[in-house]
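I'll show a record.
***
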Amino acid sequence: TIREQLTLITSQINHHNNAINAGKSKRTEAIRNARTALYKYLTGVEFCDILDTYLQTLATINLKTPTEADISSIKQKITHIHTEIDNKLSKMTQVGEKMTFINQILTYIGFNSFSLTTPEQTSKLSSPEFQSGQYILVRHSNDGTNNPIDTSTLSEGERTLLTFLYFITKYYKDGKGSSPTANLLSTLLVIDDPIASTDAETFFLITNIIRRLLDQVSSSNNNNSVKQVIITSHNTRFLKEVAFSFLNERESDSKACYYSIQKGQTGSSILGPKASSLITNEYNELWAEVRRCNKIVVQAHKNHITPQAFPLLGNTMRRIIESYFLDIGGLGTITSLSKSTDRSTATLLAFCNSSSHSSIGSDIYDILHMDSFKLLTAFKRVFETLDGGQHIGHYRMMMRDRPGDTSQQNS
């Protein structure tokens, strides 16, 4: 019957499965035996010496208590590893930021034909020298391609600018996200004449960047890695521009010191430090003479004594008036200014004109005995009356005490 046939088939299937399972168990047991034999061979023969050494070392480590020196050494190694990791990460994250900053500066100045890029962004790397480093200098072609530049083809001014920007971005923070590289050690920065062969715009750009860096370094909450900056140059204009923020600081508050190196017959000598800049110009020196005379006259009046005469005061005043009102303001001539409706102004200008051209003549007695107080008062009136008094602010600014002024006792 069908039922008998199904029973027979089921019995045959079970018999077949039992046979297979029996063979599988034998194979599994054979594999297990082979693995056990292999482990015994490896541990007992092949790696016996190595395992013995390991067990001995492990036993020694387990029994030995680490000393303070061991712990300190491990901590130093961990700190060193963390520092290396931070430096690597910092370099990776700052490459693009520095490159963007330098390219923005180049574009601002007008260098639109070339810029910095990274090796990964440039397909034309014809020389192995272009395949190393963080940046590549490329020239922009009309077809939109960027070709690596041989830096020897750049002008001296271009090389100076690129070198300076590459150097300064490591320490300079521009307020737009660009910041000094993290974890730099405290740094003494030396900048020597970074304006060689630069045009006027590049000159003032470089001096402005250095000036802002000095402001960051001298700030009371300085978090810059740079702690001190030394700047050297033969260019007095450059030195005056970068030291602009410190020129009028009082000696007790000044964060800057000034030195000069002079060559003599026996070699070079260093003069300084001075709290105020040794660099000035003729216009400032003329005003310094007026301030000196004014201090002496004011002190004499306080003591009710006759102040000394200043034979060259009229000539000094004339040169200031010519520089400020005539050369810069274009107000005519000393002769025309002497026709001012203000009597004291007209008198002073006529005196300045005469003392500058005929003081060696027979009227030297009159010039020597002019009242210095009246001269200084009339000089102030010039700034109070011309152009409706618009220039009195300049007078007050120039008459303000300066750190480098000669004291009355040294006059």
